[in-house]
Amino acid sequence: MRVANRLVPVLLVIAALMYARAPFMVDAAPIESTMGLVQKIFYFHVPSAMMTFLAAFVCGIGSAVYLWRRSKTADAVAVAGAELAVVFGLIVMVTGPLWARKAWGVWWPWGDVRLTMTLVMWMVFVAYLLLRRFGGPGSEILASAVGVFGTALVPFVYVSVNYWRTIHPSTDVVSTLPPEMAWPFRWAIVAFLALFTALLTARIRLETNRVALEEAYVALED
Amino acid sequence: MLHWKIDVRVWSRRVVAWGIAMAAVGASALLAAQAPQQPFEKFTAESGESLPAEPLVIGAYAFVWVALVVYVFMLWRRIGRVEQELADVTARLAKRQ
Question: pLDDT digits over A99-116, tens only?
């Protein structure tokens, strides 16, 4: 974990440099024929969604391990994953409507399965964090169960565009990108991954220290 | 110094307040979705293709950067505060022993 903590500043610098370069690459990418300029939101919107899914999986795996073995490290990983799922999920749900307003003519079509399921999944992770913050002693077990359920929603959110009626672009879009669009998109994914790794490591460190502080206070009172 | 003892009444009121706020948001969203739709809408610049894309794209990218910078800043402040407090409490524990 110490090595990982030392890597955090390095990853943050790499991410900052990549984020600084990204707008120039996005600007140089060709304008999409149907949606026009607004489609360029895609280059940050989709990597944010990928990080939301990744964070949800981290939370789900951490929660499952905690329920199974009562490992404090797994619990810290789960908390970190849930918080990052909320942060990146918020980015997805703000950038998405900005794109939709121009492309579809509405900010948020409530009948769309992908959008509604994403909102529900995001609210599950908000509920996880609220439980951890206000649930009191013992709430970590209930929160872990909520975390597992939140992660179980990820595959449904992902495939919803392929199986249900929706106006959201399907999952094929990413794999069929022309090379001029694929390169800035991959660049953005690596930038988001570097930042995600740094933030996850830092948040795990915070949670581990917070638990140690709680234990120290208990020891002080005894 | 943070207080780690939980006041059940205060926290239960906060949880109830949160619940009411979330229910209000959900109910208003539901009402908005069920509101009767106007069959025809007068054409305005905003409803047509002339809605400019630049502010939306710039707004999206600006939001991403601001949100991430604010989160990184808040995370670092929380880490610093907890580590400082942990060092203080550990020192007090060591002194007592």
Answer: 999 998 899 998 889 999
Q: How many CB pairs under 8 A join A and B?
A: 95
Structure-token pair, residue B10: 């205060």
What's the ipTM? 0.91
For the stretch B56-73, pLDDT in tens is 999 999 999 999 999 999
Closest partner residue to A95 among B60, B75, B85, by Cβ? B60
> Residue A160: which H helix or E strand, with range?
helix A139-163
Neighbour-count burial of A211, counting CB atoms closer than 10 A to its CB (0-12 exposed, 13-18 middle, 19+ buried): middle
- Nearest residue, CB atoms, A202 vs list B18, B79, B86: B79
Q: Which residues contact A32 (CB under 8 A, 6 or more apart)?
A: A39, A181
Distance of CA A149 to the CA centre of its chain: 16
Give the chain A residue whose CA is nearest to the CA of B32.
Answer: A110
Task: Answer whether A183 touches B (CB < 8 Å).
Answer: no
Domain boundaries, chain A: 2-25+38-221
Nearest to A145 by CA among A58, A76, A60, A82: A60
Count of C-beta atoms within a 10 Å radius of residue B27: 10
